[in-house]
Design brief:
Elements lengths: L46 H35 L3 E3 L24 E8 L17 E9 L6 E6 L4 E4 L2 E2 L5 E2 L2 E5 L2 H19 L5 E5 L1 H10 L3 E7 L1 E3 L4 E3 L2 E5 L1 H9 L9 H19 L2 H4 L2 H13 L1 E4 L5 H13 L5 E5 L2 E3 L9 E3 L1 H12 L3 E3 L7 E3 L51 E3 L6 E3 L4 E4 L5
Parallel strand pairs: 1-14, 2-9, 4-15, 10-22, 18-20
Antiparallel strand pairs: 2-3, 3-4, 5-8, 6-7, 9-14, 10-13, 11-12, 15-21, 16-17, 19-22
């Protein structure tokens, strides 16, 4: 059998509709201008008349430019939205289609819960990715943005986290039976994006009305649109499985290098899924800093290229598919200071049961602190970075400036350091885990089993050179 975590595996059996899984199978009419009489060339014009002529021309130019801008914007919006693929999410109580299309208009109000699922499907993707059949979840992240837009939390779930799977809708009608225990990434193959959403809703108790499935080419093209994402490597990465080899230092990752950096597991940290997640957090924090920089936000071409790349390589829930909804998510995230965007890994404990021995199961007790803070819209702080990440002590990580940024946008470590917590202080000056209140500025410090970082904290990925 091939290595279930080998991203370069060339093939695997297609999974039938009624699937049985083994424990180790884990993957956007200009009016013709009124003719203006030529000015007579004889005689002297009064200054007032000359001024009126100038103003007419300026008004005409403004009108043409205005119509052109609207036309271009309308075309861009149509061009992007016409390529978006959509899927209906499901009602958690029945597993049936929820019919959320009618709710897809207008901006999102209140808090946001959005599930992002990275898919390893090769369908419609570059031939460089091989010809593997089926699709599995390569990464699963819950993005929560508070209703007052003061904080955001991104929770990464291990792809091999063994969880119960609820009844999931079938694309041909009906439902698939619930499963007692399966790796989380199998849910994408079992019942598609709606099934993964239902599973994470059941795991967390949170309502997740928005979801998106991101494909390999999406990562490649979005990183290309930004001109690369700066990533610091503390120790060399040498991984033949993904084909990524990076020396220590700062790298501008884009295209296939960016994708394979996000996918490598054996090339970072201790070779575990937790290590891969912490390495991904280094990339995602830098991605957030890059996108929120003046250089990116002020460049219309870059923003269009990002949206275009996403629209061609993502499947969106119908509740998220309107331009207004997409724009409101971007606006909401843009309003949050970098220091208040925290990446955290969902905690797990090794299983010692049968087929799933050695694979993580949810640590429900510690996860309750994280999920409780999200449900209460509270800001969180992680006690430490993950096993494949390290604070940047060399100063090589760039800190892009952002107009109107606060001190927490400076790139200095902030919400990744529990000593900065302001709510529910415990002895020693840091907040006790789970003790944050709903008061403004309160911070919930997460248990030691939950690691991660803030988007403002410059960090480096620790490669496998020392292993």
């Amino acid at each position: 059998m091939t290595d279930p975590f080998d991203p370069t595996a060339g093939s695997r059996d297609a999974v039938p509709r009624r699937r049985t899984f083994s424990a180790r199978t884990t993957r956007a009419e200009v009016r013709r201008p009124t003719r203006i009489r030529p000015v007579a060339r004889h005689g002297r014009q009064h200054a007032t008349r000359r001024w009126l002529v100038v103003m007419r021309w300026l008004g005409l130019a403004a009108a043409i430019l205005g119509v052109s801008a609207v036309t271009v914007a309308a075309y861009a919006t149509w061009s992007i939205s016409s390529r978006i693929q959509t899927v209906e999410l499901a009602d958690a109580s029945t597993g049936a289609d929820a019919g959320t299309a009618a709710d897809a208009d207008g901006p999102i109000r209140g808090s946001v819960n959005l599930l992002l699922v990275g898919s390893d499907t090769r369908e419609g993707q570059s031939p460089d990715f091989g010809d593997t059949q089926g699709s599995l979840g390569d990464a699963t992240m819950l993005v929560h943005i508070s209703a007052d837009r003061t904080n955001a939390t991104v929770v990464s779930f291990p792809r091999d986290l063994v969880v119960p799977v609820p009844a999931c809708p079938s694309s041909s009608g009906g439902t698939f039976d619930p499963l007692d225990a399966q790796p989380l990434n199998m849910t994408l193959s079992y019942g598609g994006l709606p099934c993964t959403v239902l599973t994470v809703e059941q795991l967390t108790g949170l309502d997740i009305p928005y979801a998106a499935e991101v494909r390999f080419d999406g990562v490649v093209e979005m990183s290309n649109a930004l001109g690369g994402v700066p990533v610091c490597v503390a120790q060399p990465i040498d991984d033949d499985l993904t084909g990524i080899h990076l020396d220590a230092g700062l790298h501008e990752l884009q295209g296939m290098d960016a994708l394979q950096f996000l996918r490598t597991r054996s090339g970072v940290g201790d070779g575990s899924e937790a290590g891969r997640i912490s390495s991904q957090q280094v990339f995602l924090a830098s991605l957030m800093r890059t996108i929120k920089s003046d250089a990116a936000l002020g460049d219309v071409g870059t923003m269009y290229a990002l949206a275009s790349a996403a629209s061609q390589n993502m499947v969106l829930s119908t509740s998220l598919a309107s331009p207004e909804r997409l724009a409101s998510v971007g606006t909401a995230l843009r309003e949050v200071d970098l220091g208040s965007v925290v990446f955290a890994g969902y905690p797990g404990v090794p299983s010692d049961e049968g087929d799933f021995a050695g694979m993580p199961r949810p640590d429900y007790a510690d996860a309750a602190v994280l999920i409780g803070a999200i449900g209460a819209d509270q800001r969180v702080a992680v006690p430490a970075v993950g096993v494949a990440a390290a604070p940047d002590t060399s100063g090589v990580v760039p800190t892009p400036t952002s107009s109107g940024s606060s001190a927490s946008d400076s790139g200095e470590p902030d919400s990744g350091d529990p000593s900065t917590a302001t709510g529910g202080s415990a002895p020693g000056g840091s907040a006790a885990p789970g003790s944050g209140s709903a008061a403004a500025g309160a911070v919930t410090v997460l248990p030691p089993t939950i690691t991660g970082q803030s988007a403002a904290a410059p960090t480096c990925t620790v490669g496998n050179a020392g292993r």
